[in-house]
Structures are given as structure tokens and as C-alpha cells.
Amino acid sequence: MKYIEFGCNRVKASQVVLGLMRIPELDIQGIDALLNTARDNGINFLDIADCYSAGKAESLLGEVFKKNPSLRDSFIVQSKCGIKKEPGKLTIFDFSKEHIIEAVNGSLKRMNIDHMDSLLLHRPDALMEPDEIGEAFNQLHAEGKVLSFGVSNMNPMQMKLLKTGLDFPIAANQVQLSICHTPMLNASYTVNMDCDSAVMRDGGVLEYCRLHKIVVQAWSVMQYGFFKGVFVGSPNYPKLNEVLNRIAKEQNSTPTAVAIAWVLRYPALMQAVIGTTKQHRVEESAKACEVKLSKYEWYELYLAAGNFLP
Fold this sequence. Notes:
Residues 17-300 form the NADP-dependent oxidoreductase domain. Pfam families: Aldo_ket_red. The chain has helices spanning 28-40, 56-67, 69-72, 97-111, 130-142, 156-163, 183-189, 205-211, 238-250, 255-264, 279-286, 295-304; strands at residues 3-6, 11-14, 16-19, 45-47, 76-81, 83-84, 92-93, 116-122, 146-152, 170-176, 215-219, 223-224, 229-230, 270-274. By secondary structure, it is of the alpha/beta class. The protein has a domain at 3-175 and 193-224 and 267-276: NADP-dependent oxidoreductase domain (TIM Barrel, Alpha-Beta Barrel), CATH 3.20.20. The protein is globular.
């Protein structure tokens, strides 16, 4: 496993992150085993959100921490808030001070912990007031409930606007990125060209994060489209799987590890969030840091996924 410095306190964070959105599919023993497998393979970072299964994911994690308190000390715990779901009402985005503080207190209670190491704002709220968010962050940090703060799915202008009200740096931006989901990269190759991929839909978020030392947390690293499916082994991507299998064989690795290594090869502060509930997949994913991709191999994979270079 490889590690990067993360957050205000510059903690040592694994480049592979265990995402816990799907743990409601497991029982307590299964979740405990999953976390232990992650820990034993060098993964020390957990990602969750208050909206995952309407809080059930956090509650299950809390049960595991209560049963095995030593596990809490083994991980950097990150949760997300801002997606507001209430029974009988529409789902909206809410970055109000009241909601942020209420959400964090609820998350801490469900997870049976006294603080979270990182809090991300979950998707952008067009009605956000930076000063109000800053007040919420200051209060949560002063109370020892949150150590670092970040965002999810924000573009550079949204981050710039948010920073006008913050006393803390943005630690991370969690965005969708995989070999088969590359809009953030495509536009950089087709500058000033008359084609669809030349339209920059993200405002240069990867470059912005590099410039400002913001950790890029890639989610859906094994998926194509918006949760359309896993590309490894998919008949929709025969050329990509041919290249993944060849490189995996050459490096005594697996296609899964190679696919995650492709994400981590990007020269920013990178983390890859995996969402598996299978222990053997966690072990495979952790080995991504052992895969050494050359520039040629990185571009070969990019092109094999159906992308193009001018």
C-alpha cells in the first residue's frame, strides 16, 4: 500500500479507500471481516455518507465499532452530508449551517464515534452560503467533532466560491473517474477542436486540485457510465479487457488491480474509493499500488476503453 498526507493534520492516508455504501448487504460479522481484511492489506481510510441506505450504513458501522473498538483506531473515518432525504418529501441538497451540524451529530451518534476525521459536502448546493458553511465548519472543528473538511462532485468555481467563507483548506474533492468514465480528461486532449469531447464540462477540476494540493478521491473506479456496470469482464469492452488481462499477466497482478492503478497513476494527490463487499476484491484492490504503469500503458488503456487522441 502507498500513502499520502491528508487533511489539516496531514495524516498518513492509504491511496485505496474502502467505500461503505453497500455494507447493508452484509451482516455485522461480514462487515467486521471486511474491515479487518482492509486493515490487514494496508487500507486505513473508510468512506461513508449519512444518506447511504437512509443512515443504515453508518448505523451498521457503528455496531461494528461498538463490538470491536480497536477497529475505530485503525481507520481514518470520512462521512458526507448535504443530500437531504426526508420521508414523503423530495430529495434536495442542503448546505445550511443547521443541516450540516445536525447531520454531523447524527452521523457521529450512528457510528458510535466522538469525531470523524473528514467531512465532505455531498454534491453542490446551488443555494450555499460560504460564510454560513464556514461557521458550521468552525463550530464542528472547535467542538472536536470534525478534523478536516472537503467536497464532493464540485467544479473549480464552486470550490473557489466556497473557499471565500472557509478558515480551513479543502482537503479533498470526491469525483467520478475510471478508465471508462473520463470526461475530466477528454477535454484536455481536444482543446479548440470542433468535437463533443472538446466541451469542458467540469471546468478543469483535476488541474485545479493539482494546483491547490486538494486530494482527488475517485469514485466508481470500476464502473462505466452512471452505475451502468463493472467494465472488467464486460462484453461491452473486449479491447479494454484484452489489454487489462495482458498487463495483469505481465505484472503478476489482476485486471482489477491494473484498473485501479490506472486511476492512481494520474499525477495528483490521488485516492481510489472501492465499493466492494467481497474480501477477495479488497485484497485485489489493495495490490493496485504494486502495479507500475508506464505512460505508454496508461494511454494504451485509455484508448482501449474507446477514448481517442487527436
